[in-house]
Amino acid sequence: MRRRTDFVRVRRAGNRFQTRHFVVYLARLTGAGAPRLGLAVSRQIGNAVVRNRIKRRLREGFRCRLKPLLAPASALLIVARAGAAQLKTQEMAAELLSVLPTNSRAMPAQRAQPHSCDEGR
Question: Is 120 helix (H, G, I), strand (E, B) or coil?
Answer without folding.
Answer: coil
